Amino acid sequence: MGINPPKCNDIDYINFLIAASNVFSCTEAARCYPYIPNAPSHDAFTCCLQRQPSDTEALWEEVKSYVKLKDGCLIVDDSTLDKPYAEEMAFVRRMWSGKHHRTVKGIGLVTLVWTDGTTVIPIDFRIYNIDEDDKTKNDHFRDMLDKAKERGFNPKFVLFDTWYASVKNLKAIRKKEWHFLTRLKSNRLVNPDNKGNVPLETVDIPPKGRVVHLKAYGFVKVFRIVSKDGDTQHWVTDVQEMEQTEREDLAKKSWKIEEYHRGIKQLCGVEKCQARKEESQRAHIMFSLRAFLRLELQRIKNGTSWFESAMKIRRVAVTAYLNNPLYTLN
């Protein structure tokens, strides 16, 4: 006896994520499915999530045609997917949230994106699950860069935040013969004049930057940026001849991953999966990133923002209701 084919697939679920506005459950996906004989039930969508492989190859297969392996920048950053009401849900733990500026319950998502300064494409991701796989966020950082190298990437720069600026990570990038731009904490030790290591915040750094020796790594160029509100940032690169204008351009590109984080949360339902099992949560996150890819490609092709693309779908539903209101006083 043959095995019945699945009633729904990954594309069905991805399309649901793009069109849905608030509720992103398998039950809701089944309710929204077009009325056809033998339409998929919520169990069918649940099975669709649970049968997905645990690797990220499906994402790579979709995005690889839209990136340039020998051009652009790779950006690594993590984001906390809020799960304030989760009980016994896979991957959920207490962790720091930059959005809330405090510790919250959530899932740690570490993403590697590619950008040319205009397009932003997620190419790999990891879920922070140290109690099960014993991997820190820095381990995931190096694993994803290793995978990128294996896939043929040779980016102009790797961009990342202070959290990932450890000597071990910097050396891993140097071993690949890639360049980096990141930020350092003000207490990192550097040797500016061959007289010994001192905290970075005590070093005189002119507007054009200064080459110093970073403890345990080697010579780097540091820029000190003081914002209007007095906040001080120390940017660092291994490219000792870098000019301030190039640093500004790369810093601007590095913010692309923050835009990506907002997109997957606000428009792709990445935080809204209610399933408790690891397989379902991982697959839902994967599908959310693939949903984002479709919105981003539409933006690049037609100049339509992610929000406007989503609103075009929802306006059709509103128009249909206005033509035939269901809830009236008579």
Automatic annotation (TrEMBL):
GO biological process, one term: DNA transposition
One Pfam family it belongs to: DDE_Tnp_1
Residues that span the membrane, as ranges: none
Listed GO MF terms: DNA binding; transposase activity
InterPro entries noted in UniProt: RNaseH-like_sf (IPR012337), Transposase_11 (IPR002559)
Residue ranges of every copy of the Transposase IS4-like domain listed in the record: 71-291
Protein name: Transposase
